[in-house]
């Protein structure tokens, strides 16, 4: 009988693992070109960057890692014409980002690793813009047909405008309240790019009535946060219910056989 009772226990563990599998998905880092790195085809004639890109599925929050040197650059654009012409001189900052720049005139090269986060859904194009586009036209480029939404952007990659909470109406009306301050992080690329935003800070004062209002809001916020901490997903509830039914079923069978 003991062996039978272990069956639902194993089944429950397996079902719980399946239910948690979706939440275990993580953002990924993709090394462009794998071991070949990011170089023009005169240096790496076997590199096929488009074939490499076609073999992966990319989502928001993933990173592309470009292992290259100072003789090559990393340009990202959502403008198909810019990509096809291998020329970003007249591109707009809104659709094209220069993540790294090279100096073709410098004969002394140094290794460079450039990490590029995927921040927007839809098509994305990458190329090296050095030597007036010759590296790009020679094959050092690739396109991602569509970056999927996936899990969406993690908080650390969201622009500050999406992270900052709406200002409290009481603080806006209160002359003693300090203004909100948003502190963005730096992605460490030449154009500054979007970064992560820090939390807003506000210091306010008020009379006794405003103090009572603050206490009431604080209590409501605590209740809300407590509810969020102890919230259970519907899937986990279903799995737990099935586990309980399996255990009860085996116990009933065992009792009937005694």
UniProtKB/TrEMBL annotation:
Q: Does the keyword Lipoprotein apply?
A: no
Q: Which domain of life is it from?
A: Eukaryota
Task: Tell me the CDD domains matching this sequence.
Answer: Phytocyanin
Domain called Phytocyanin: residue spans: 28-148
Q: Which InterPro entries match?
A: Cupredoxin, Phytocyanin-like, Phytocyanin_dom
List the residue ranges of the region (Disordered).
Answer: 145-225
Q: Where does the sequence pass through the membrane?
A: 6-27, 230-253
Task: Cite a single GO MF annotation.
Answer: electron transfer activity
Is Acetylation one of the keywords UniProt gives this record? no
- Give the Pfam families listed for this entry: Cu_bind_like (PF02298)
Give GO cellular component annotations, separated by semicolons: plasma membrane
Q: Which UniProt keywords apply?
A: Membrane, Transmembrane, Transmembrane helix
**Name the UniProt record assigns to this protein:** Phytocyanin domain-containing protein
| Species | Linum trigynum
């Amino acid at each position: 009988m003991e062996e039978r009772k272990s069956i639902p226990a194993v089944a429950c563990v397996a079902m719980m693992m399946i239910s948690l599998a979706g939440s275990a998905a993580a953002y990924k880092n993709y090394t462009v070109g794998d071991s070949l790195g990011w170089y023009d085809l005169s240096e790496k004639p076997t590199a096929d960057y488009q074939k490499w890109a076609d073999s992966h599925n990319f989502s928001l929050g993933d990173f592309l890692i470009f292992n290259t040197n100072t003789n090559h650059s990393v340009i990202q654009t959502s403008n198909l014409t810019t990509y096809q012409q291998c020329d970003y001189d007249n591109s707009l900052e809104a659709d094209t980002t220069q993540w790294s720049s090279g100096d073709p005139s410098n004969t002394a090269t140094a290794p460079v690793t450039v990490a590029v986060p995927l921040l927007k859904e839809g098509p994305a194009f990458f190329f090296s813009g050095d030597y007036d586009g010759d590296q790009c036209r020679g094959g050092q480029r690739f396109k991602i047909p569509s970056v999927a939404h996936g899990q969406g952007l993690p908080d650390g990659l969201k622009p500050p405008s999406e992270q900052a909470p709406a200002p409290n109406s009481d603080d806006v009306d209160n002359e003693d309240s300090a203004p909100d301050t948003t502190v963005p992080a730096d992605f460490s690329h030449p154009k500054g790019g979007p970064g992560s935003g820090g939390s807003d800070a506000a210091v306010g004062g008020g009379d006794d009535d405003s103090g009572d209002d603050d206490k009431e809001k604080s209590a409501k916020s605590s209740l809300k946060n407590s509810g969020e901490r102890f919230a259970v997903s519907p899937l986990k509830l279903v799995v737990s219910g099935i586990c309980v039914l399996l255990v009860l079923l085996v116990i009933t069978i065992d009792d009937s056989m005694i």
